[in-house]
Every structure is written in C-alpha cells, then in structure tokens.
Amino acid sequence: WEYLPQIQERIPKTPLIANGDIKDLASLKKCHEISGLTQFMIGREALKNPHVFQQIRTAQASPLDWQNKQK
Fold it and tell me: What is the 3-state secondary structure (H, E, C) of the chain?
C-alpha cells in the first residue's frame, strides 16, 4: 500500500485500485489512510468469507469520507 501514492502520481489519469490484505472495515480504512486511494479490491478474503462485503457495509455507520468526494 505504501507504494501506491507514488504510482498514482506517475499515472494520474489511470484508475488505480488498492488490494491485498483487506479483510474488514478496519483494514480497508488503513489501506485508504496509507495509500490515499478510494477504490479497493478484495480477493482472498472473499474466497474465505463471501460475506465480507456485507460485513464491511454493515460495519460502517455512515458513508466513508472519500465516498462523498467521488459524487
């Protein structure tokens, strides 16, 4: 996640999606804090726990800060 901001600077018009070790809302927020990105992909965790997406949606009481900026 630490290298993603540098990559995004080099290719600013290309959408960049963060992934890797996103397992729950806490790790999603940590990834956002470190990378500054607003798009995420969940892979291995979805195979182990197909309910992870609903669990993240349920865990967040309100839209995440960066979701409001995309509108």
Answer: CCCHHHHHHHCCCCCCCEECCCCCHHHHHHHHHHHCCCCEECCHHHHHCCCHHHHHHHHCCCCCHHHHHCC
What are the tens digits of pLDDT across the range 14-33?
999 999 999 999 999 999 99
State residue 71's pLDDT score. 47
For residues 55-64, give the mean pLDDT: 73
CB 64 within 8 A of CB 32: yes
Nearest to residue 7, comparing CAs of 27, 34, 35? Answer: 35
pTM equals: 0.76
Interacting residues of 16 by C-beta distance below 8 A, sequence separation 6+: 4, 7, 8, 37, 39
